[in-house]
Amino acid sequence: MNLILFGPPGAGKGTQAARLKEAHGLAHLSTGDMLRAAVEAKTPVGKEAEAIMAAGKLVSDELICNVVADRIEEPDCAKGFILDGFPRTLAQAEALDEMLAKKGKSIDAVIELTVDEDELIRRIEGRAAESGGARADDNVETLKKRLDVYHAQTAPVLPFYREKGLLRSIDGMQSMDAVTRAIEAALPEAA
Ligand code: AMP
């Protein structure tokens, strides 16, 4: 079973991906984690990505597609995987289809976690106020910037999967356990 977890920053994709990995033995492919590891290890990919990530922008489609194409070749992906944070543009979605088709694979479902963005921002602001200081305030600004990028570049991917009949939208503002149950209920039958 190959899944995509989709949704804006703060929707809880990482938490739910970890649970899906555990429950179904799928590989968890977080492109954000992969890029952060590359930055840490100072690889050529990391050097190219570092400043772009710090600015809250998207790295190039070509760079991230190469990273994902290599990763899905790894043995732990043979039984299936969860993509978390990819695809983030329509070009990435199309490239993903192509790379999977070459391997005789496909995406079985796209799970979208929807959020109330005002509530999301209020939560982060609440946390910032509690901890105090400039750094916490930065988080609010960064979240807003990343939400803007999500709307401009990533949300347009949704119709692509809706038209294929793969999209399942789930209210991500419920408790983590309720979201997990809703995802499980939305998974394809054969899984
Ligand atoms: P994330 O942890 O998924 O929010 O990713 C952190 C950062 O990595 C993003 O803000 C982007 O700069 C970069 N990134 C992760 N995934 C992608 C992607 N699919 N396309 C472009 N940039 C990405």
Describe this structure in words.
This protein is of the alpha/beta class and 191 residues long. The chain has a single domain (2-186), classed as 3-Layer(aba) Sandwich (Rossmann fold). 58% of the residues lie in helices and 13% in strands. The chain has helices spanning 13-24, 31-40, 44-54, 61-71, 90-102, 117-131, 134-154, 158-163, 176-186, and strands at residues 2-6, 27-30, 81-84, 109-114, 167-171. α1 (13-24) crosses α9 and α4 packs parallel to α5 (90-102). The termini are close together. Bound molecules: adenosine monophosphate. Adenosine monophosphate (AMP) binds next to α2 and α3.
Q: Using only CA atoms, what is the Rg? A: 17 Å
User: Can you list the strand order of the major beta sheet?
Assistant: 2-3-1-4-5
Helix content range: 55-70%
Biggest sheet descriptor: 5 strands, parallel
Hetero ligands: adenosine monophosphate
Mean pLDDT: 92
Number of domains: 1
Q: Based on DSSP secondary structure assignment, what is the total number of beta strands? A: 5
Order of helices and strands: EHEHHHEHEHHHEH
What portion of the residues fall into strands of 2 or more residues? 5-15%
Please mark out the parts with pLDDT under 50 across 5 or more consecutive residues, or reply none. Answer: none
Helical run tally:
9
- The 3D shape can be described as globular
What is the name of the CATH topology? Rossmann fold
Q: Assign the CATH class.
A: Alpha Beta
Q: Can you say what the CATH homologous superfamily is?
A: P-loop containing nucleotide triphosphate hydrolases
Structural class: alpha/beta
N-C termini distance: 6 Å
Corresponding CATH architecture = 3-Layer(aba) Sandwich
